[in-house]
Amino acid sequence: MRYLVFTNTPAHVHLYKHVVSELRARGHEVRVLVRDYGCTLALADAAGIPYSVYGGCDTTKRSLLANLPGQYARSLTAAVRFDPDVVFGIGAYAAPAGRLTGARTILVHDSEPTSLDHHIARSLADALLTPDTFRDDLGPNHRVFHGFKESAYLHPDCFSADPSVRADLGVGDEPFVVCRLNAFGSHHDVGQGGFTVEQVRTLIDDLDDHATVFVSDEGGDLDVDATAGRRFDLHPARLHDALAEASLLVADTQTMVTEAALLGTPAVRSNSFVGADDMGNFVELEARELVRNVASFERVRATALDLVTDDGASDRWESRRRELLSETVDLTELLVNVAENPRVIDRVAGVTRRSPGPAAGAGRSSTAD
């Protein structure tokens, strides 16, 4: 069969990289369309995925909107020329490509605030796969799996951390913290925000007495050299190795927080999404005591210090991680089975119809203090 896969962000590359490799190994023809955004191309290169670039943009909303028409034109032209049997993606590029070519369109979503993507997907996609913690009902084609989007690349069957990253970072056996900062440049980030530059400086000063602080700043707003922290300057493909070895993640982003949970690393998450209407996966991860969702910056400071000085935290998180992973699917395996059975995905093990009513965890509240 012929598969067209859209990877618009670094997270999309991670989601589909093993699926692409496995489908090719089974003799299928796969074409990957990549948007040059952040470190997307670097990750695709590291994964050994042949790809074509259909456009690019930086991490600002203005750049996203300015480049949108050209990206649609190039991606749809490429889709028609390839003539796929099945289209995979996440965002609003894959669904129109599937409709235009007559291919089956299968999308993976995990973020409730991306309402534009959901509106397009509900109208055009043949199947929308989400974690079973997803709070919104996406209609009759909505299917769920027990796990997380990140289960496609951090499930133990897909990933083993490389501890040599410690030597590459120059920290030896000493504790270190990863501070991840979001650019908030996507369309679903309109009106949203996270840490200010001054707050990040304060966090680094707080944590520097207890651990080396590595900063991964998507937007590039912080002058890391003017702080006590260090820039994370390894290849972006090593970030999961570093995250697995870290004592703590403090972040105002989303994906990396879920990644930390699946790797057994304590995580403090704080942004304007935190609260009673938070995304279902973070509500679930907090209920499992793998993530702390905190709205107040002073509570972020206190929570981060508590965790980085807690000698027993690593063992407790590892135990919780193992329990979580024992219950969740290998999403790569599931997606490959879906790919090979695109018209009967309800027969694929691990895929179920979404039940009416609130999703699992929807009644719990994130920490809003």
Automatic annotation (TrEMBL):
InterPro entries: DUF354. It comes from the Archaea. This is DUF354 domain-containing protein. It comes from Halorientalis persicus.
